[in-house]
Amino acid sequence: MLGISIRYLTTSLLSPEDTHLYQDILFISDLHLGLEKPEITRRFLTFLKNEASKASKLYILGDLFDAWIGDDDPTPPNNEIRKQLKELVQSGVNVFLQPGNRDFLLGQRFSADTGVKLLDDYVVIDLFGTSTLITHGDLLCTDDLAYQAFRIKSHTNKWKNNVLSKPLLLRLFVARWYRLRSYFHKRKKSTEIMDVNQNTVTEKMTEYQCYRLIHGHTHRPDVHNFTVNDISAQRFVLAAWTKNSGSILSWNNEGYKIMTI
């Protein structure tokens, strides 16, 4: 049986206008679900039936899937995940998904099939009285010039339509090739290049007038405290899920806790 433990709990209190205890709002990212990762899939489906079903909202901040080649892909475990997400939404939980660099081809058919709301690259939410900026995180890694150039090209409608027009089997083959290519390219890059650029973080938080940021992508879970325009700020980095554990950032009106399944 899967257990759950609390890894960190803040001591600060939030002060919403209505002081009754709200249901938790949950944040996860970087599960990289796929056929080759059954342990993570089982853990995620159990999470949807248990912890997520008790929440008011669930935010998935990118890379739910290791590779998404189109809403028409029935490769396991895609259909089972669609089914469980739909059941969670129908139970009354609001589920939001911010596509990441691995699953940016998620489209409106997926949204219609599941009831999950797809979000733009940057979104500001009201998190118990505090404006909070959420994003997948890849756009903050501006030192990785090669990736940023590819991202610009691959997010155009022309590029997406060209890929999605190809036969499913060809897309499956290309996705496997791309993952292998990406793996070897990452080995050549320094860890600093693949992390966020702090100047970019400051610029985006200033642009959106937020002093709390939540993101994933870098697989470097932490809570960073710093200042933006002489104002205290925090950056929460979500952990990637592995075959051994899954991480959840849970928030309510008393603060946050980071839980490990």
Describe the model.
This protein has 7 helices and 12 strands. The protein has 261 residues and is α/β, with parallel strands linked by helices. It has one domain: Purple Acid Phosphatase, chain A, domain 2. It has a 7-stranded mixed β-sheet, with helices on one face. It is globular and about 55 Å long.
Helix-strand blueprint:
Blueprint: E1 5-9, E2 25-28, H1 38-49, E3 57-60, H2 78-90, E4 94-97, H3 108-114, E5 117-118, E6 123-127, E7 130-134, H4 145-154, H5 157-164, H6 168-188, H7 198-207, E8 212-215, E9 222-228, E10 231-237, E11 247-252, E12 255-260
Helix pairs in contact: 1-2
Question: What attributes characterize this protein structure?
Answer:
31% helix, 261 residues, five-stranded mixed sheet, 7 helices, seven-stranded mixed sheet
Q: What string, H for helix and E for strand, traces the elements in order?
A: EEHEHEHEEEHHHHEEEEE
Largest sheet: 7 strands, mixed
Number of strands: 12
Number of helices: 7
Radius of gyration over alpha carbons? 18 Å
Structurally, the number of domains stands at 1
- β content, as a range? 15-25%
Structural class: alpha/beta
Task: Give the neighbour order of strands across the main sheet.
Answer: 1-12-11-2-3-4-5
Q: In terms of quaternary structure, what is this?
A: single chain
Q: Please tell me the CATH architecture by its name.
A: 4-Layer Sandwich
Runs in which pLDDT lies below 50 for 5 or more consecutive residues are 5-21
What is the CA–CA distance across the termini?
Answer: 10 Å
Tell me the CATH topology: Purple Acid Phosphatase, chain A, domain 2
Mean pLDDT: 90
CATH class: Alpha Beta
Shape: globular
The CATH superfamily title: Metallo-dependent phosphatases
Q: Which percent bin holds the helix content?
A: 25-40%
